[in-house]
Amino acid sequence: MIPHTAMVLAAGLGTRMRPLTNDRPKALVTVAGKALIDHVFDRLAAAGVKRAVVNVHAFADLLEAHVRRRNDLEIVISDERAQLMETGGGVRQARPLLGDDPIVVCNIDSVWEEPSGAAIARLARGFDASQSGARLMLAAMDQCLGFEGAGDFFMDAQGVLSFRDAMPRAPWAYMGAQIIDPRIVDEEPLEPFGFMRVWRRLEAQGRLHGAPLGGFWMHVGDPEARAQAEARLAAAAPST
Predict the structure, then answer these.
(1) Which of 152, 156, 196 is nearest to 173 (CA)?
(2) Taking Cα atoms as reference points, which of 206, 145, 218 lies closest to residue 177?
(3) Alpha helix stretches (DSSP H) within the chain
(4) Residue 237: exposed, middle, or buried by beta-carbon count in 10 A (0-12, 13-18, 19+)?
(5) Mean of the per-residue pLDDT values for the chain?
(6) Rg of the Cα trace of the chain?
(7) Which residues contact 64 (CB under 8 A, 6 or more apart)?
(8) Which helix (H) or strand (E) holds 138?
(9) Cβ 229 vs Cβ 31: under 8 Å
(10) How many other C-beta atoms can be found within 10 angstroms of the C-beta atom of residue 74?
(11) Are 189 and 183 spatial neighbours (Cβ–Cβ below 8 Å)?
């Protein structure tokens, strides 16, 4: 079943993207002529998601006006003008808007290719909330750009994840999309915190799972990565 609702994490300050974020939120930086948040919205809509909860902070009025132009998704705003809640805290604050059914959670600085069809739909089809609190979409380390780490996770044959920790490298990188049981944040205090805190708890319980993206991932975290992503998309675009 495809989740009805997604949470789109769009409230970040975008400091690494300056000067492109001097007059707009990171979510409205364009890649190949399309705002980052619209790249994500397009993937969600193509997968069958109907509703997106979007958190806002920097340039909140500008972002709200932009997202409300969408007519293929119901847009709901989670207002973080008063305090930036980070990734986990953003989901925790938006909890009353999310319901108790599984949801998709997406960052807005990821653009990806889908040679095998809607990756979010495939991610959702393999999610079982009775066995897993979160299922993360993962990019192979040789299928990404703009990611400067040495990998995030190891994944076993059943899709159970373990962190790289002290190992020098790992084969999989989290690429900014996951499906979760939203109740996994209910025991967290209402404060700013990163999602890593929740993942660590789930890993210890054997309830953190992953799935391969099955395509190329572009982490658009700074102006150089944006230029690289635009070059790749231009090269892949059909000639007219």
Answers:
(1) 152
(2) 218
(3) 36-47, 60-67, 86-93, 95-98, 119-125, 196-205, 223-236
(4) exposed
(5) 95
(6) 17
(7) 56, 77
(8) strand 134-140
(9) yes
(10) 13
(11) no
Terminal Cα distance for the chain, rounded: 37
Cβ contact 167:59 at 8 Å: no
Q: Per DSSP, what are the bridge partners of residue 64?
A: none
b or e along 19-46 (b: 16 or more beta carbons within 10 Å of the residue's beta carbon)? ebbeebbbbbbebeeebbbbbbbebbbe
Which residue, chain included where needed, has tokens 């409300």? 68
Could you give the angle at the alpha carbon of 138 between the alpha carbons of 132 and 139, nearest 5°?
170
The one-character DSSP state at 212 is: E
pTM score, two decimals?
0.94
* CA–CA distance, 136 with 15 (Å, rounded to integer): 25
Please name the helix (run of DSSP H) or strand (run of DSSP E) that holds residue 188, with its range, or none.
none
Give the pLDDT confidence of 102-140 residue by residue, as tens digits.
999 999 999 999 998 999 999 999 899 999 999 999 999
Residue 235, phi then psi, degrees to nearest 5: -65, -30
The answer, yes or no, to whether the previous bond of 19 is cis (omega within 30 of 0) is yes
Q: Which two tokens stand for residue 69?
A: 């132009």
CA 40 to CA 49: how far, in whole Å?
A: 11
- C-alpha 202/C-alpha 204 separation (Å) is 5
pLDDT single digits (tens) 137-178 = 999 999 999 998 899 999 999 999 999 999 999 999 999 999
What span, in angstroms and rounded, lies between the C-alpha atoms of 50 and 158?
A: 29
